[in-house]
Amino acid sequence: MFEALNEQLMLNQLPGTFIAGEMLDWEAPTGGYLLTACFASGYVAGQGAQAWLSQR
Ligand SMILES: Cc1cc2nc3c(=O)[nH]c(=O)nc-3n(C[C@H](O)[C@H](O)[C@H](O)COP(=O)(O)OP(=O)(O)OC[C@H]3O[C@@H](n4cnc5c(N)ncnc54)[C@H](O)[C@@H]3O)c2cc1C
């Protein structure tokens, strides 16, 4: 699944679209404490979006 994303969680086939939280995986294999993963992936995606926009 992660092969569809770059390191900033941007969709390779849809540049400018960043993925975080449960959108990363509907099956949620991480079990509990998903909020931690949501916050962490949201931070990475937000940083990526900011960097992507600064290159425009
Ligand atoms: C009952 C329950 C208990 C839980 N307890 C815990 C817990 O104790 N600890 C823990 O870590 N995790 C817990 N979780 C999991 C945690 O709540 C979720 O993993 C987390 O909230 C997911 O965040 P998200 O931002 O990915 O998605 P969401 O919180 O679902 O946010 C998605 C947002 O997108 C909005 N949206 C949807 N479609 C559109 C659209 N077309 N346009 C614009 N906006 C849209 C929705 O309104 C929503 O606000 C629990 C979940 C549930 C259901």
Model description:
The chain has 56 residues and is an all-alpha fold. 38% of the residues lie in helices and 0% in strands. The relative contact order is 0.23. The site of flavin-adenine dinucleotide has 7 residues, from helix 1.
Residues in helices, as a percent range = 25-40%
Bound molecules: flavin-adenine dinucleotide
Strand tally: 0
State mean pLDDT (0 to 100 scale).
89
For the record, give the distance between the C-alpha atoms at the N and C termini, rounded to a whole number: 27 Å
Derived structural class:
mainly alpha
Largest sheet: none
Total count of helical runs of at least 4 residues: 1
Q: Report the uncertain regions.
A: none
Written as H for each helix and E for each strand, in order along the chain, the element string is H
Name the overall outline. flat
Indicate the radius of gyration in whole angstroms.
12 Å
